[in-house]
């Protein structure tokens, strides 16, 4: 089935097969909304959330799950080298071929220049990012949930820019003799600059290793439309709304990490479309609970001179204050773990801006972290993907990677 043949792909739960491309044994299946980056890719469509089997599905196989995330500095001393790793990624700053030799020197310059300000931010949230600790906890809870569903599996954490690096996780996977691997980026919505960057790294690792070439695997690039995830988000929002004196008067303010506009308009990045649909699905779930608050979506964390997705979070907060909005509930929609962009950017910077702009009542929905409904749904997603695990030969992930001048930059 061609990717363009279904009008309902964005609402379906898609399970990927052979995420690194075609195999001599079978075709490549990828979970993605139709766009010009994926026009030649095929998709396998299942129901949004399938019933998982009650019997073991692993047999004699050794199942592994690899959780992918950004990573973050754990101490203030880690900040500058973390930033160097970030900016040394050609998917973060894309240089013309003629100037690629400047990638690492430029990364060194930028990381040194930005480190002092970044250190202040991390110092304000305890001296480092909690991302590793939270992701490790998510991995352990996912392992338990899988075990309870008769799928014993080892769950690994691979960070893109800090320890434990993806390369370290892959080496442990090899030592454990894993035979079937499910790759699960902890980004609900796909972007070429988040999940795409991590998958491109994996592509290189798999191409160079005979063991990995022959290991069966699958990937779930995005899962924002899954029922468990939507319900978990709605649960958190409903709980926080109840803390306001007049919950029905609260504006629900979804704030997502931004990407440069060129990604969407020129590269066909599905991030914006997936984000907007994700918000719609959450609000539909809230409406079923008789919650019909006004809501809006904006994008945070822009840097540099290029235009990013609009509306911007800071500008939108000011406009809402000018329009007389008095109660605002911030919902970090693209983050499943607390980190600097929730704990410092939203909780400190945007809260202060909101109060200065005339908004009197401020609230913030916590990140999902280890919320039980969320973890259970991740376990179901892993189990649903197992029948589609296949052997990899050659990667086609480059179809998602395009020549944008500047890739997404995180704080």
Characteristics of this structure?
411 residues, alpha/beta, 4-stranded parallel β-sheet, 11 strands
Please describe what this structure looks like.
With 411 residues, this protein is an alpha/beta fold. The chain is built from twelve helices and eleven strands. The strands form three sheets. The protein has a five-stranded mixed β-sheet, sandwiched between helices. The protein is globular.
User: What is the arithmetic mean of pLDDT?
Assistant: 83
Strand content is 5-15%
Q: Name the helix and strand elements from N-terminus to C-terminus, one letter apiece.
A: EEEHHHEHEHHEHEHHEHEHEHE
Helix tally equals: 12
Distance between the termini: 40 Å
Q: Please outline the major beta sheet.
A: 5 strands, mixed
Overall helicity? 25-40%
Strand arrangement in the largest pleated sheet: 4-3-5-6-11
Put the structure in a nutshell.
The chain is an alpha/beta fold. The chain is 38% helix and 13% strand.
Architecture blueprint of SSEs:
Elements: E1 13-14, E2 45-46, E3 63-69, H1 79-87, H2 103-124, H3 131-148, E4 153-159, H4 166-175, E5 180-185, H5 195-207, H6 210-214, E6 216-219, H7 227-241, E7 251-257, H8 261-265, H9 271-288, E8 295-300, H10 313-322, E9 327-332, H11 340-356, E10 361-364, H12 372-385, E11 390-391
Parallel strand pairs: 3-4, 3-5, 5-6, 7-8, 7-9, 9-10
Antiparallel strand pairs: 1-2, 6-11
Helix pairs in contact: 1-2, 3-12, 7-9, 7-12
């Amino acid at each position: 089935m061609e990717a363009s043949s279904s009008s309902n792909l964005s609402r379906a739960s898609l399970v990927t097969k052979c995420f690194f491309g075609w195999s001599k044994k079978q075709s490549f299946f990828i979970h993605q909304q139709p766009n010009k980056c994926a026009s030649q890719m095929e998709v396998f469509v299942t129901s949004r959330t399938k019933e998982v089997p009650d019997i073991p599905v692993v047999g004699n196989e050794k199942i592994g799950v690899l959780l992918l995330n950004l990573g973050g500095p754990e101490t203030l001393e880690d900040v500058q080298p973390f930033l160097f790793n970030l900016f040394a990624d050609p998917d973060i700053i894309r240089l013309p071929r003629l100037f690629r030799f400047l990638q690492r020197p430029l990364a060194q310059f930028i990381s040194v220049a930005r480190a002092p300000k970044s250190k202040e931010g991390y110092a304000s949230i305890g001296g480092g990012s909690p991302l590793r600790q939270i992701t490790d906890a998510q991995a352990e809870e996912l392992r338990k949930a899988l075990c309870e569903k008769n799928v014993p599996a080892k769950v690994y954490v691979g960070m893109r820019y800090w320890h434990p690096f993806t390369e370290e996780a892959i080496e442990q996977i090899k030592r454990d003799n894993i035979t079937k691997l499910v790759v699960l980026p902890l980004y609900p919505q796909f972007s070429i600059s988040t999940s795409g960057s991590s998958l491109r790294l994996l592509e290189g690792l798999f191409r160079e290793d005979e063991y990995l070439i022959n290991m069966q695997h699958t990937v779930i690039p995005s899962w924002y439309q899954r029922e468990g995830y939507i319900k978990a988000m709605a649960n958190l929002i409903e709980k926080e709304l109840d803390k306001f004196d007049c919950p029905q008067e609260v504006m629900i303010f979804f704030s997502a990490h931004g990407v440069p506009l060129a990604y969407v308009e020129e590269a066909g990045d599905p991030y914006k479309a997936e984000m907007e649909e994700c918000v719609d699905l959450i609000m539909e779930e809230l409406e079923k609970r008789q919650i019909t608050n006004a809501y809006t979506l904006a994008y945070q964390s822009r840097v540099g001179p290029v235009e990013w997705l609009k509306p911007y979070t800071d500008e939108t907060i000011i406009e809402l204050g000018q329009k007389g909005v008095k109660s605002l509930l911030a919902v970090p929609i693209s983050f499943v773990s607390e980190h600097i962009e929730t704990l410092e950017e939203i909780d400190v910077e945007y809260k202060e801006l909101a109060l200065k702009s005339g908004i009197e009542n401020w609230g913030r929905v916590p990140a999902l972290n280890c919320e039980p409904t969320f973890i259970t749904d991740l376990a179901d997603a892993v189990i649903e993907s197992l029948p589609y695990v296949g052997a990899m030969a050659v990667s086609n992930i480059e179809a998602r990677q395009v020549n944008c001048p500047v890739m997404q930059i995180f704080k």
